């Protein structure tokens, strides 16, 4: 039988230092979802995915996401390992935007720009565990967070939930929702920032893995990785993965590696469709990702530098990759990009579906 094991081994937040008044009384723990040979562990610090264990083609259990051994390390993390990021994921130019005639000044945390919701975004708050199922065919856990009006400069009061569910046949869903309970419209773009290495988190780099991205176009960026506003074809560029390709085959054509948003094909009415397929030849593990979001940020861990991770393993550049389904970066300042503005009493829903197999 599937089960959820709760290991409250990290007790109260006071052990790790003070936090703001919204979170200081909440406990931080480690939670496990398990079904068959697949096991996922989380912490409610940032609604973060801590580990993802499943068998490789030889039946050996391996952990395929980067992470840390302790909550204290997650609190001091600057890489967003496994975290939920928001209120607006990715970059916002000049840490400001206009909405309904008002200009909103945000809190910058990457030079003059904002990244992943600011210096204290959703990755750095304590979420409440509001539901979990420890028996049955669909083990799941729900993290909830009350995001207040003015948080990091964003207008509007929203209730955010993230639900992870283990399904049959090695499938996992991540459903991110937000309900605007205030009286101001607000942008919402919540993303999952897991770092994947299908050879195992301690196996080295991901340059030999193969990826296919179902996107004919991408959004070019400036020197600050802010989209220029254009949408261009991937053909004839290092970004073309319409057919499966080895990640390292063209990565040297880029200054540091991949960190780019793809405009996914087949965006019609928010329907879920395939976004990417990732394969590791050595482990034999294949991961297929589907989503209802219009964009996908492909990031090859370019900025990872000697980060001490799980079991003391030291992660280096390209130790893993991120596949962050999302609305395009800086869409709040780009009216021609797909928009995700949640009006009062309206809802936001972002779905990811992972399917795993071995070959």
Automatic annotation (TrEMBL):
Any one Gene Ontology BP term: glucose metabolic process
Keyword check for Cytoplasm: no
Entries under InterPro entries matching the protein: Aldose_1-epimerase (IPR015443), Aldose_1/G6P_1-epimerase (IPR008183), Gal_mutarotase_sf_dom (IPR011013), Galactose_mutarotase-like (IPR047215), GH-type_carb-bd (IPR014718)
EC number: 5.1.3.3
Signal peptide: 1-21
Segments crossing the lipid bilayer: none
Keywords noted in UniProt: Carbohydrate metabolism, Isomerase, Signal
Family from the record: Belongs to the aldose epimerase family.
Protein's recorded name: Aldose 1-epimerase
Species assigned in the record: Populus tomentosa
């Amino acid at each position: 039988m599937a089960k959820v094991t709760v290991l409250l081994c990290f007790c109260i937040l006071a052990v790790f230092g003070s936090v703001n008044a919204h979170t200081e009384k909440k406990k931080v723990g480690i939670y496990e979802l398990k079904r068959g040979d697949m096991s996922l562990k989380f912490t409610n610090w940032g609604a973060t995915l801590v580990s993802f264990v499943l068998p490789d083609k030889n039946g050996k259990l391996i952990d395929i996401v980067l992470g840390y051994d302790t909550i204290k390390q997650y609190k001091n993390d600057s890489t967003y390992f496994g975290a939920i990021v928001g209120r607006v994921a990715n970059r916002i130019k000049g840490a400001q935007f206009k909405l309904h005639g008002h200009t909103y000044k945000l809190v910058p945390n990457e030079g003059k720009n904002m990244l992943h919701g600011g210096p204290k975004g959703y990755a750095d708050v304590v979420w409440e565990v509001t539901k979990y199922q420890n028996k049955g065919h669909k083990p799941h856990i729900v993290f909830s967070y009350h995001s207040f009006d003015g948080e990091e400069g964003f207008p509007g009061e929203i209730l955010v939930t993230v639900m992870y569910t283990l399904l049959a046949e090695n499938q996992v869903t991540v459903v991110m929702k937000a309900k605007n309970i205030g009286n101001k419209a607000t942008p919402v773009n919540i993303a999952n920032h897991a770092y994947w290495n299908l050879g195992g988190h301690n196996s080295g780099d991901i340059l030999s893995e193969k990826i296919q991205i179902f996107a004919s176009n991408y959004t070019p960026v400036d020197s600050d990785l802010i989209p220029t506003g254009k949408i261009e074809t991937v053909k004839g560029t290092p970004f073309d993965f319409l057919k499966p390709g080895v990640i390292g085959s063209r990565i040297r054509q880029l200054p540091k590696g991949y960190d780019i948003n793809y405009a996914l094909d087949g965006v019609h009415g928010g329907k879920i469709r395939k976004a990417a397929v990732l394969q590791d030849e050595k482990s034999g593990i294949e991961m297929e990702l589907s989503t209802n979001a219009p964009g996908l940020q492909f990031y090859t861990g370019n900025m990872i530098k000697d980060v001490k991770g799980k079991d003391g393993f030291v992660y280096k550049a390209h130790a893993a990759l991120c596949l962050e389904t999302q609305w395009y970066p800086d869409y709040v300042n780009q009216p021609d990009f797909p928009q995700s503005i949640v009006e009062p009493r309206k809802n936001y829903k972002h779905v990811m579906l992972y399917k795993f197999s071995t070959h």
